[in-house]
Design goal:
291 residues, single chain, 11 helices, alpha/beta, Transpos_ISL3, 4 domains, Nucleotidyltransferase, domain 5, Transposase, Transposase_DDE
Length: 291
């Protein structure tokens, strides 16, 4: 009879071990000591706990249960060796999780060998009009500007009603000089963003040309260095990101789209119901280009 550990509830004894079992290890103390748990694949209930995970321990237990036909396990080599030493007739199979992971690894390796690092796909033409894209930061800046303009108008209205600048400064918690400045404003103030100096200043047009040709960041960096660029790779990356961001904000419609191999592989493993329409179209075009 096999004793089941009280960790799983009441103590009980199983007279006969099931023919189909699953085996895995667990930690008594992670990184120091491990044991082995054996479960019935039909009922998904524990059958036995072994104090170790050595091949000899596994073999000894299996030899005492001659009716076992199939063992589901992971890739731990001690389990494989222990089962083989116990009986050559026992069929060893991968458990579902490790089997799916191994299949995914092989498919990813196959896709990596077929797909280029950057995939260029043609966009389908539509009659829909494109509009400039507004970022979250721009929306927040716009909201703050509108809120400030409303405050300025309220200050001007209170001043017309006869309130003094000192009283307005005390009411709005501002310096009197700021109140005087707001009283002279006739239009909504526009914030002008100062352009920061970059390592790539002087190479903007060439970077834009190479980016439109589909060159990667490293390829663009290598080309720039031939013409005297001495900055860093991250400087080139920032310049390219700003070009793409500006193009997106202006609503310029591109005839093609570039997508990385890693992103395309992630589309392959997504459920079809979770894919966006654009992602699904890109995936179908990719399958046609690389059957």
């Amino acid at each position: 009879m096999t004793y089941c550990s009280p960790l799983f509830g009441k103590r009980r004894f199983i007279k006969r071990c099931p023919p189909f079992i699953g085996i895995d290890d667990f930690a008594f103390r992670k990184g120091h000591s491990y044991g082995t748990i054996i479960c019935d694949l039909s009922t998904h209930k524990p059958v036995a706990l072994l104090p170790e995970r050595y091949p000899e321990t596994i073999s000894e237990w299996l030899k005492n249960h001659q009716n076992i036909q199939v063992v589901s396990r992971d890739g731990y080599q001690a389990f494989r060796k222990g089962i083989q030493n116990a009986s050559q007739s026992i069929l060893q199979v991968y458990d579902r999780w490790h089997f799916v992971r191994a299949v995914k690894k092989q498919i990813d390796a196959c896709l990596t060998s077929i797909l280029p690092s950057v995939i260029t796909l043609e966009k389908e033409e539509t009659d829909q009009q494109t509009f400039p894209h507004e970022t979250k930061l721009q929306r927040r800046q716009k909201e703050r500007a509108e809120k400030k303009w409303m405050m300025i108008k309220s200050i001007q209205q209170e001043y017309k009603k006869g309130k003094k600048k000192v009283e307005l400064a005390r009411e709005f918690h501002m310096d009197p000089r700021t109140i005087s400045k707001y009283l002279n404003i006739t239009e909504m103030p526009v914030q002008v963003k100062r352009k920061r100096k970059r390592q790539t200043d002087g190479f903007e047009q060439y970077i834009q040309q190479l980016e439109q040709e589909g060159k990667t960041i490293r390829e663009i960096d290598a080309q720039l260095r031939k013409y005297g660029y001495t900055g860093t790779l991250s400087g080139v990356r920032v310049a390219i990101e700003s070009i793409r961001k500006e193009r997106k904000q202006q609503g310029i419609k591109e005839s093609s789209v570039r997508i990385s191999r890693r992103q395309m592989i992630s589309y392959v493993w997504k459920r079809k119901s979770r894919l966006l329409e654009e992602e699904l179209q890109l995936l179908e075009q990719s399958f046609k280009m690389y059957p």
